[in-house]
Amino acid sequence: MTAAATSPETPAFQSIIRLEGVQKYFGAVQALRDINLSIGRNEIVGLIGDNGAGKSTIIKVMTGVIPPSAGRIFVRDQPVHLSDYSVRRAHNLSIETVYQDKSLADKQPLWRNFFVGRQITNRFGFIDIKREKEIANQILIDVIGFRGVGITVDSTIGNLSGGERQGIAIGRAMHFNADLIILDEPTAALGVAEVRKVIDFVQRIKASGHACIYIEHNLAHVHEVADRLIVLDRGAIVAEILPKDMSVSELTEYLIHLQHKK
Amino acid sequence: MEKSGSVSIFQRFEGLPIMIVFALLLTLFMYTAPTVFLQPFIYTTFLSTLPPLVLLAIGLTFVIGAGEIDLCFPAIIAFSGFVFAVLFKEYNLGWISVVAGLASGILVGFVNGVLIAKLGIPSFMATLATQFFWAGIATVLSGGKSYALREAEQSSVWQWIVGRPFADSQTAWLTQLPLQALWTTIIVLFLWLILTRHRFGEHVLFIGDSNEVSRVAGIDVDREKIKLFTLMGFLAACAAIMLTLENKNYFGNQGQGYLLTAIASVLIGGTSIFGGRATVIGTVFGCFIIGMIEAGLVASGLTGAWVRTVQGLIFLISIIFYLYADEPQRRRAFFARFQGFGRVRSAE
User: Fold this and answer.
1) pTM for the complete prediction?
2) Does A107 contact B212 at a Cβ distance shorter than 8 Å?
3) What is the distance, to the nearest Å, from the Cα of residue B292 to the centroid of all Cα atoms in its chain?
4) Considering the domain boundaries, does residue B14 fall inside one?
5) Residue A247 CB neighbours (<10 A)
6) Does the first or last residue of chain B, that is N or C, have fewer Cβ atoms within 10 Å of its Cβ?
């Protein structure tokens, strides 16, 4: 809701997020090598690469979960102070992440999961439970479309299906009006019909003038929705591909070739 | 509406199963030991002896709810109790000794928190080590002596913390009502609000559910864990001061008996041993049950040797009950294990 200030009609910036020379070490292991990456303000970028290529690490660096070892991050062309860059800060800058299985806490009720990390509180930190529940209920019905399926704001997350969880995490990101929504393999645990819904959602992000980074193993899904594909290999960006230049099968060939070229 | 039914009646009324068990036990003891349990004095005695246990168990409710454990609090009782007793008795510092006692508990708790959150030592190991350390320090400093706080009841400290405000009353049981029960009630209500309605309480439960999810959601997990153990240290120091004043005596191992009873009270109350779910109300009733069993069994004519046995049995039954009632995934795994045993046996 805080993001509404930056309306899409007045593009005051070129790229929603830009990484410059980002390196990340875990001990002696270099997880990211000299990453330069820029995401336009209304662009869907697919991030592909094998397991361990560094896709998740890039996302964690971008969203303030872990700090980079070196390099710079720009949000809306403004440099970010890495010392105080955090998940909360990223939220304030309208960057939202939907993780495959780490977005929701299992034993907590749905409404707490919507607001955790940015609760509606009075100035002593006490939560306005009534308002949080009201808003959560609205999101359930209007944004996610869970009407009459027996899910209420008091439902425990652990009792929901994988698709329902994904819907809730995505609905949360939409509610907080994120300018950049990062989806980390959102379809990994889903059935065919539910995958369709997620892809529709990604297209809706584009239509509403926002940006999206889409990490996906299934090349057909990502090829269908992305404007641009970034290929990662062993912590470095090795290629940028426009889906219109390459079919899904050519893309598959290319990635297999990349694996053999060690 | 199948799924909304999954919010069970036990989840909707915090602590309901444990209240039922408490009521049943109380009824049982009223039947087996009517001379004790139908008189008011057993209850006024509970009000003066249970507050330290309740305070410790409430702190542990937060700690266990966050998926951690604190074994250090008996040592905090020894250390903070010593700091308080020596300043109160030897230096006559009155309220300053109370503040110093509380500060020492907060300090120990804070150090525990830093060891766990910043150095990443599992809380079980960290607090086991610090428990030895601080209990050792308390013994070294006190030289193993006990401090009798004679005539403490003359002091305003005693009168305000563990005094008997209605001592002049005509009604016998009213004269016995202790002030520490009031302070404990206030602290418990406040912490109940914190756990259920405050940002910190929500963070504690999310951390207990999953550290990873909490980080991603923007919770500063390290800072909240430090706060958590600092709170535990503060509560243990409160317990230490109440205990020392109530007994009008400090001795080095006065906290030792609380380790298992406090943990048992929390788990009997319905706080999940796996973290993520915690109930202050349940814990309070857990403390009542643990405290009542001792008096109840003895008053019913059993020897004191039965107390621990029955406490252990109730502890075990309640853990199995909560496993069955509240954790569907664990329940499935639990029964799958039994089916496994069955197959092995039939194969033999």
Assistant:
1) 0.83
2) no
3) 15
4) yes
5) 11
6) C
